[in-house]
Amino acid sequence: MTRKIGFPLLLVGILFIFIVTGCGGGGGSTETGNPSYVSGVVQKGPFYKGATVVIKELNDADLQPSGVEHTTQTASDLGEFNFVNRAEIKSTYVEISVTGTFYNEITGIRSFFPITLNAFANLARTQQINVNILTTIALKREKYLMVQGGKTYDEAKIQARNEILTVFKLPDGIISDMQDEDTDTFLHMDIGRDGVKNAVLLSLSIVLGNYTAQSISQVMQTIGNDIERDGVIDDPQYVDQLYQNSEDLNSSRIRTNLDQFFRAITAGFIIPNFEQFIEFYIRPYVKSPAPIFSLPTATYNQDISVELYDVKANAAIYYSVNRGAPMLYTDPIAISGNQTVMTISAYAVRPNMAASDPVTSYYFIDYAYDPAHYRTNMTIGDYQSSIVGTWVGHMEPPASYLSPDNVQITFDGSMQYTGQKISQFYGDSSGLSIVYYGWVGSELYYGTGAAYESKMIDIYSLNPNGTAVSNFLNVYNNGGGTTNAGRLDQMAMSDDLNHLRFELWSNAYPTPITFILTRLSE
Hints:
The protein is an alpha+beta fold. The protein has 3 domains: 24-284, no CATH class; 292-365, Immunoglobulins (Immunoglobulin-like, Sandwich); 374-519. The protein has 10 helices and 28 strands.
């Protein structure tokens, strides 16, 4: 018995076939037929509307531009473009180049400078061409494998994909999982869609985006040129540096920025889980927190026991005494005996993290030390004749971000200071990261590096009676103009002449920074 098909059902079937074959540009492979468009999205962050899109036809033999080009523009702030006249493109292979500004997901604003992204595609295989940092980096390698290596388009795309993911140190399991992806994996990635491959793209876009726009272009060009012939980056430290420089990325802020951007334009987006890869990239370069000393640098008039604490669990702490060989910390460190001077340096190591910066503390045992017994009426002459030597101790700062450790000053017979580091700032809201104070000659210097940069204080006496209780005035430049640094006062020594105290006053704080030092034994 033959079953008749009703006309309405037949019409629906015909329409379905027409839709599938005529409008199937959403990433599917098309071996035959002549679709009417080439479309895609351009993303570092999404490119803004009006970016220039150039489709260059390539010769089949050498994949070099034939000279025929087609131009369009991105049609929205999502970086979307659509080249309607697909029939005008005669070549099988094309190279797409897009130049424009983009949404910077790190800063949450439009990029100040345009960049150019590229992609290489076979229009017989796909008409969905998303242009991004990975298609840009892969382009030269893909073309080299086909022209010089004799690979097919599919073979070149797959090999270049795996090599580049290896260059960026993606886990083997992720690379293996992408074997199930289509040939044009990079061309079909989208930072506004869910999925592992899209998370990989977004995470790498963020890491490379942790630079100025000009540097992003330079990074892509450097890596693309490096891997063109062998698929291996010559200097692995280059990628290490990219990841290490990304330690301070704020993933939560980046997700908020992206969510707000996409939400303002479209409802059809899902920000993929890029955080897992950011953590994977930078974790080996993130330093462990430094250990904490149970007692501060100071002079003590009795024997003491110093403990070291780890800030995070599962940390191993190593320490050295008086610059000796490092030892694993297990028990408190005993310091005993009159006139004992001990320097303890320590650092912490956690699994899969870099070792912390070393921290150092100085300890002095002086049974006769009495901080209440300081002489404040010494003349400059008496002071100069008594102060010769090296003094080490600590500070009691008025600002929480000022390190109290590692104070070391050496005086000669003319009351001249040598240039040891005296202390350093911790990062604070003013933007200072590490700032050094240190003496060179008779001048106290201020700077943001190991070299002291701008004079802070000249040492001289203003008191008419010549006593060492003196004011020392000068100015320093803090990057935005001249600032009054303050005055140095209350230079005092203990009765036994082995302890020194003076105060540095600043107009920024109502209380002085007090230096408490002990003379090192000769």
